[in-house]
Design brief:
Elements lengths: L3 E6 L3 H13 L2 E7 L13 E2 L2 H8 L3 E4 L6 H10 L3 E5 L6 H12 L6 E4 L6 H12 L5 E11 L12 H4 L3 H17 L2 E10 L10 E8 L4 E7 L1 E13 L2 E6 L11 E7 L15 E5 L4 H15 L8 H15 L5 E2 L2
Parallel strand pairs: 1-2, 1-4, 2-3, 4-5, 5-6, 7-10, 8-15
Antiparallel strand pairs: 7-11, 8-9, 9-10, 11-12, 12-13, 13-14
């Protein structure tokens, strides 16, 4: 197997996740790691740097994996692209649309032109099966959707870096809700008319929101409702796709914390003539999943793009720009409403 020489910038939880996935793949030669905390280097045998520019310059890698704070993502991505490296970056694609457009320009001017963002939820088995169902046409067209993605904070939640707007760019919507927005966009297309309520309902001393409610419309009339929450004290993932001839329900999500419950997909075909059951109770088809290969699928796609010249299919820079345009619509210039 041909090897890609790579460096990883940022060795927190996501850096380690990507490191492990690349090791499992076997096609990656990790030649350098970088983090501002030198203590993280004791767990690895690879050369360890504290300066990301020095890491990229001295390692002469084929590809750079970016797993840093949102604020520095654009600078690292653009620098790596200018050096001719392929780049895989964690989401979100910067703090705002301006950051994303900066990376798009750098990608267009790069020799390599390979840039992929890590939206791993598209690679969960339940989502893969749901997309296959939709694409098959047996349930008709997706006409509307309901999505809830929420988690509890921690005792130190207000002081976490994700809630420092200067570093992160936004709160729970940008951190976690972007995954649900991306899935809705994946199944329904780009939303062009957006209404939203961005709130601080419980965590009132934060710089960012703890809850977002949004109604989104596509140009061709599809409608979605999205709730992104940091006050869902029992972790929850739920996405309903209502189709013209049936219904798909995704509930639960396999994650490292195992706190979102069993990952499963249930679908029904419309049966108004009661051929398969009572009215409103058609035959139920359920699939349950007990493995999460999403990280492996992502690193395989990136490898295939770099080594075999295949296109980046998911998490493209075009996807990133569209998502950040929609997020700016949701945030309404980052306005916050506080509950009394």
């Amino acid at each position: 197997m041909e090897k890609i020489k790579v460096v990883i910038i940022g060795m927190g939880r996501m850096g380690k996740t990507r490191y492990d996935a690349m090791k499992r793949h076997g096609g990656y030669d990790i030649i350098g790691l970088c983090d501002t905390d030198p203590a993280r280097g004791i767990y690895y045998k690879e050369p360890f740097y504290s300066d990301w520019k020095l890491c990229i310059d001295q390692c002469h890698a084929d590809a750079v994996i970016v797993c840093t704070y949102n604020v520095v993502i654009p600078d690292i991505v653009c620098y790596a692209l200018k050096k001719g490296c392929a780049v895989f970056s964690e989401k979100p694609p910067g703090r705002n649309l301006a950051d994303t457009l900066k990376m798009q320009k750098a990608c267009e001017g790069s020799i390599c032109k390979i840039l992929k963002f890590g939206f791993n939820h598209r690679y969960h088995n339940s989502v893969i099966e749901a997309k296959a169902l939709v694409d098959s046409g047996i349930l008709g067209d997706v006409v509307c959707a309901r999505g809830v993605y929420g988690k509890a904070g921690t005792p130190a939640f207000p002081s976490e870096w994700r809630n420092d707007r200067a570093i992160s760019g936004g709160g729970i919507m940008l951190d976690q809700g972007i995954h649900m927005l991306d899935l809705m966009y994946y199944f329904m297309g780009k939303f062009t008319d957006i209404q939203s309520s961005v709130n601080q309902l419980v965590w009132k001393d934060m710089d960012t929101e703890d809850s977002v409610f949004s109604i989104l419309h596509t140009e061709d009339g599809k409608v979605a409702s999205l709730h992104s929450s940091a006050i869902q004290w029992r972790h929850k993932f739920s996405l309903d796709l209502i189709c013209s001839e049936g219904f798909i329900s995704l509930n639960g999500l396999l994650t490292s914390t195992m706190s979102y419950g069993e990952e499963r997909l249930t679908y029904y075909k419309k049966d108004l003539e009661c051929k398969t059951g009572g009215l409103g109770q058609p035959i139920e088809h359920t699939m349950c999943f007990d493995t999460d290969e999403s990280w492996d699928y992502e690193m395989k796609e990136f490898y295939d793009a770099v080594v075999r010249g295949k296109p980046v299919l998911q998490g493209t820079i075009g996807d990133a720009v569209n998502l950040m345009e929609m997020l700016e619509g949701i945030y309404h210039k980052n306005s916050i409403m506080q509950a009394e």
